[in-house]
Amino acid sequence: MKRAKGNLTQSKIDESLQEIRSLIDFLNSRTEVSEEKTLSLYFEHHGLGSLHLDYEEASHYHKCLRNLIKISVKDDDLSLKTVEKAFQEALLKALCLNTSSIPEDARISGILEDLKKKITAKRITYRCYIPIYGINEGGLPLSIGQIEFIVFDDLLVNNFQEIVAKHPIQKEAKWETLKNNIDTNFYKKVFSVVTVEAKDYESAQVIAIKKTRKILDILNFFSALVPYNPDAWAYLSGDSEARWFETIILNEDDAISFNIGRKRIGALQKLEILRIIESDAKNNIGFSHIVNLLKKNNLNKFEQALITAIQWAGRAIIANRREEAFLLYAIALESIVLVDNENAELSYRLRIRIAHLITSNPKNRKEVVNTVRELYNLRSKIVHDGKYEITNLELDSMKSISIRCIQRLCVDPLFQNITSPEDFSDWLEDQILANVFEKSDITV
User: Fold this and answer.
1) CA distance 290 to 152
2) Per-residue exposure over 329-341, b if at least 16 CB sit within 10 Å of its own CB, e if not
3) Domain boundaries, the chain
4) What is the distance between the alpha carbons of residues 80 and 73, in angstroms, rounded to a whole number?
5) 3-class DSSP state for residue 419?
6) Residue 313 pLDDT class (50, 70, 90 cuts)
């Protein structure tokens, strides 16, 4: 079976390269300059010249590139930028005037073979260091899932020096450059360490950042469940820096009257992983269950959906705009409560299921149903109008319902035995039907 799969992959690669060869022949056959050139695609590479494609040519180009990416990139192990750069270089080389003694057909074949080697390169193991902001150093180093949080200390600096010392040439110059960078940007700061397999540096960085963000989203979600711990967030550079937002509001009817507004946005304090662990041990907020899931090599579909819902809610928690946070909480709800069928009667199924998930009291269920209906009317206004302003009360209501649903799925042992979206759906339907029978005084 493995051999057959390998043959199939090789066949797809050969088909993609043959398609690129056809594109090269097509471009070589074009002798007239199209008037549409200014409306299409242009790229250049140093030493290889440039290429300007009209609409028809660009369509061929994009089709070839899509197929090349499809057969060469698996699990983000090769960056899309790397694939496109290699593709563009191959085109430019192939379209250059042949000044060698090599027959044109053989020259093109050699260029495509070089392209094939680049996109089918073996994966390499990379250890990635990603700077983290907003995490307290207490308790570090500490591992969660595939991520280790560390402080870039003297021991690590020495390790890097030993690595550079193994380099065959220019050891001193390379170490001086790296040491200056470490002193300026790394030393005594918190980092995530992620080991990944990828085909190039850029794709390794993409994978490492994605894995790190996943854990940060989860930490931010559970940090919000820790009592007396307001706005303690962890984030990557550019995501949610703490800063002051200042405005000047002038009363134009009275030029003497003005107001200088100043408020702090972003994290108010650093996230402490140890506080999350301690709160979970004392109050069971569900953190240990999720940490155990992250240790598994393969999650079932329900577990994957639960992790995804936590990530969406974690992103909502650090969102500065109320409307954005509101929508992210809504997505978190939908991603888990409608995990079995996201397209089926969205609003009705959602509010009925949520009511049965977070309360067993019939009167309270009715209140939850009405609340969710109102919140989803607001969601519709945001999505379709874009001008609706969400109040703090409305945001808090959506946040509360989202977190209560997700937290129950994290802490209730009943749901830890569920392995599929269908099982979860069956449980919800059983609760709903039981409630209907009870109301109707039906005995079965």
Assistant:
1) 27
2) bbbbbbbbbbbbe
3) 2-119, 123-152+189-296, 298-440
4) 8
5) coil
6) very high
Model confidence at 69: pLDDT above 50: yes
Residue range 177-213, pLDDT digits in tens: 889 989 988 999 999 999 999 988 888 998 999 999 9
DSSP secondary structure, 334-367, as one string: HHHHTTT-TTSSHHHHHHHHHHHHH---HHHHHH
Cα angle, residue 378 at apex, residues 377 and 382 outer, rounded to 5°: 120
Core vs surface per residue 172-193: b (16+ CB within 10 A) or e: eeebeebbeebeeebeebbbbb
Considering only residues 340 and 379, tell me which one the structure prediction assigns the higher pLDDT.
379
Q: Rounded to whole angstroms, how far apart are CA atoms 287 and 104?
A: 63
Q: Where are the alpha helices (DSSP H) in 150-250?
A: 154-165, 171-181, 201-223
Question: For helices 2-29 and 80-95, what crossing angle results, to 10°?
Answer: 50
For residue 171, give both structure tokens: 């050891």
Beta carbons within 10 angstroms of residue 352's beta carbon? 21
Does residue 365 have a pLDDT over 60? Answer: yes
Torsion region of 178: left, alpha or beta (phi above 0 gives left; psi -120 to 50 gives alpha): alpha
Question: How far apart are alpha carbons 145 and 147 in whole angstroms?
Answer: 6
Q: What are the tokens at 296? A: 């598994």
Query: What's the pLDDT tens digit per position in 259-289?
Result: 777 777 777 889 999 999 999 999 999 999 9
The residue whose two tokens read 């705009």 is 321
Tell me how far apart the alpha carbons of residues 180 and 433 are, in angstroms, rounded to a whole number.
67
| Global confidence as pTM | 0.80
Extract the tokens encoding 124. Answer: 């390499």
Cβ atoms of residues 271 and 136 within 8 Å: yes
